[in-house]
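Side project, low priority. Logging it here so it doesn't get lost.
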Amino acid sequence: MPRPAAIWPIAALLAAALPGFAAPAAGRYDARLCVTQSAAAASCGAVTVDIRAAGVAQVRVSDIVYDLRLHSSQVDVVLKHGPMQIDWFTANYEWLGDELRFIDLAKRVGYQLQIGARRPDAK
C-alpha cells in the first residue's frame, strides 16, 4: 500500500535520523505533539509528557492519553480516554534530537512529539 505524500517527509526524516539519541531523563515535560493524517496539514498542540523508567511515557492531550512503551526499535501505543481504550498500534520509532517520531502505517498517520522543558513540578 503506498504511503500518502504528507507521510513521506516523516519517513525520510526517520531514515536520516542520527544514531545515539535517546529518550530524555525520567520526569514531566512540556511538549508539542503534531499529528499528520494523509495529505492534510499537520495538527499540532501543547501536551504534557510523563517519561518514566523502563521506556514508558504518557502523553496527555486534555482527557486523552497516549501510553507509549518504547522497546529497542518499536513503540507500542495505546490511546485511552479515561479508563477506556480507544485504539492501539505498534510502530517503528526514532529519536531525532528532542523529537520522537513514529508512523501508524495502517491508518496513514504520522506523529511527531517534540519534548520541551522539564516542568518545575516534575518529580
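Brief comment: DSSP finds one helix and eight strands in the chain.
Revisit when time allows.
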